[in-house]
Specification:
Elements (H helix, E strand, L loop, with lengths): L5 H4 L8 H11 L12 E2 L9 H10 L1 H4 L2 E2 L2 E2 L1 H5 L8 H14 L11 E4 L1 H13 L5 E5 L6 H7 L4 E5 L11 H13 L4 E7 L11 H14 L2 E5 L15 H7 L3 H5 L6 E6 L12 E5 L2 H10 L7 H12 L1 H28 L3 E2 L8 E5 L9 H15 L1 E2 L1 E2 L10 E5 L5 H18 L16 H28 L1
Parallel strand pairs: 1-13, 5-6, 5-7, 7-8, 8-9
Antiparallel strand pairs: 2-3, 4-10, 9-10, 11-12, 12-15, 14-15
Helix pairs in contact: 6-14, 7-8, 7-13, 15-17
Bound molecules: pyridoxal-5'-phosphate.
Family: Belongs to the class-I pyridoxal-phosphate-dependent aminotransferase family.
Protein name: 1-aminocyclopropane-1-carboxylate synthase
Catalytic activity: S-adenosyl-L-methionine = 1-aminocyclopropane-1-carboxylate + S-methyl-5'-thioadenosine + H(+)
């Protein structure tokens, strides 16, 4: 008798992608400058640790809030009791105001149109449940955030069809790539329900232009589809061009065609405080939609992933402090800019370049094609393993983001100290010099490993993954 469900035993979670395997390897042998100086440096995690001091100093000045008091009186019992799944009105108001502030107050958001979720992960999955049936599809531009295979597909049974973007135009989405993806879906007998983009993009670290956004809006208007704009990095833009939210485009479009088609009801924004405020552990996300039915359905579904009352209480006070949010956003932006520059310069010294258009996010999209032994995903995996085990850096291979060109990697820069970033750059430079047969120290190159057995286990899982990746590519090529 089968004891577990198909869902519990199915393989579509994506946990065995190199993106997650790299995290596992890091966990076994994490770098620490005193305890484990030869350990692996985690550069595969898009976390923002650069502005914790600003949050901590706000908390120190507002101890009543942290101690669950209002006007000096404890509200512990109020917070501990049953929570209505609509969320605290004061928090929803503070959150929409914060979202508007990030967009330069060019747009406003109605707190009645927001649904709180346990992070953007839950927001994206909830939208899939609301907008598509099992076996229907969403189009996503490549490269895309590896977590989407889990978030969009795993439990919902929704399919992802890639919109193939290439380095020839810095991975920007084109009309022909969109149309091609639509054709590809049709050939697979998949009904397409919408397009999902991340703006700013993870993993590219770039913002979408007004042209791209208008292209998308016209596409979903003509094809009668939905658009999900995951704007989780909207406050994490450190140089021009500025971030443009799809909401701004919706406000600008006043053509009759657009208004008649009720497009605004088919555009949904996903947001979270995991990146802009650096609070992924708090699990605070949201769906914003002008579609009443979607808001009502998503609110009911949010029962499965609510944001705790004490978190909402704390953050409604923090985000309600406008002086604090203004200062936080601008200071955080300065720090990100400085950090990104350090990474770009460090890579440059090692002869490695990044996507020139990088102006946002917590990572760079790095071109290591010159370090591949051949123009294949097998060579990309070989390089990734060398960088993981010999250099001691966990970075994310482009193939884990479904990039169609081998040799690109996502490298994070905001989840470590400056010293650690400098060490990572030194290790990489030495590795490149050694690979080129030049002189260079290799003293750092022999990583200590946690145990022989765990290493061989992981290598086996990585080999399995590479095997599956090459079969997938062959299969996709045959289908094309
Ligand atoms: C584009 C994108 N969407 C969603 C998520 C998930 O975020 P959360 O921690 O809010 O669930 C991430 C996290 O890396 C992301 O990069």
């Amino acid at each position: 008798m089968k004891l577990l469900s198909t869902k519990a035993t199915c393989n579509s979670h994506g946990q065995d992608s190199s993106y997650f395997l790299g995290w596992q390897e890091y966990e076994k042998n994490p770098y620490d400058h005193v305890q484990n100086p030869k350990g692996i440096i985690q550069m595969g995690l898009a976390e923002n640790q650069l502005s914790f001091d600003l949050l901590e100093s706000w908390l120190a000045k507002n101890q009543d809030v942290g101690g669950f008091k209002r006007d000096g009186k404890s509200i512990f019992r109020e917070l501990a009791l049953f929570q209505d799944y609509h969320g605290l009105p004061s928090f929803k108001k503070a959150l929409v105001d914060f979202m508007a502030e990030i967009r330069g107050n060019k747009v406003t958001f109605d707190p009645n149109h927001i649904v709180l979720t346990a992070g953007a992960t839950s927001a994206n999955e909830t939208l899939m449940f609301c907008l598509a049936e099992k076996g229907e599809a969403f189009l996503l531009p490549t490269p895309y955030y590896p977590g989407f295979d889990r978030d969009l597909k795993w439990r919902t049974g929704v399919e992802i069809v890639p919109i193939q973007c290439t380095s020839s135009n810095n991975f920007q989405m084109t009309e022909s790539a969109l149309q091609q993806a639509h054709e590809d879906a049709k050939k697979k007998n998949l009904k397409v329900k919408g397009v999902l983009v991340t703006n700013p993009s993870n993993p590219l670290g770039t913002t979408m232009s007004k042209n791209e956004l208008n292209l998308l809006i016209d596409f979903i208007k003509d094809k009668n589809m939905h658009l999900i704009s995951d704007e989780i990095y909207s406050g994490t833009v450190f140089t021009s061009p500025n971030f443009v939210s799809v909401m701004e485009i919706l406000n600008e479009r006043t053509d009759k065609d657009f208004l008649d088609a009720n497009v605004s009801e088919r555009v949904h924004i996903v947001y979270s405080l995991s990146k802009d405020l650096g609070l992924p552990g708090f699990r605070v996300g949201a769906i914003y939609s002008d579609n009443e039915t979607v808001v009502a359905a998503a609110t009911k579904m949010s029962s499965f992933g609510l944001v705790s009352s004490q978190t909402q209480y704390l953050l409604s006070a923090m985000l309600g402090d406008k002086k604090f949010t203004r200062n936080y956003l601008s200071e955080n932006q300065k720090r990100l800019k400085k950090r990104q520059k350090m990474l770009v310069n460090g890579l440059q010294k090692a002869g490695i370049s990044c996507l020139k258009t990088n102006n946002a996010g917590l990572f760079c999209w790095v071109d290591m094609r010159n370090l591949l032994t051949s123009d294949t995903f097998e060579a990309e995996m070989d390089l990734w393993k060398k960088i993981l085990y010999e250099v001691g850096l966990n970075i994310s291979p482009g193939s884990s983001c479904h990039c169609t060109e081998p040799g690109w990697f996502r490298v994070c820069f905001a989840n470590m100290s400056e010293d650690t970033l400098n060490l990572a750059m030194k290790r990489l430079k030495d590795f490149v010099s050694n690979s080129n047969g030049e002189e260079g120290s290799n003293s750092d190159n022999k990583r200590t490993r946690s145990s022989q057995s765990s290493r061989s286990f992981t290598r086996k899982s990585i080999s399995n993954w590479v095997f599956r990746l090459s079969s997938r590519d062959h299969h996709e090529q045959e289908e094309r």
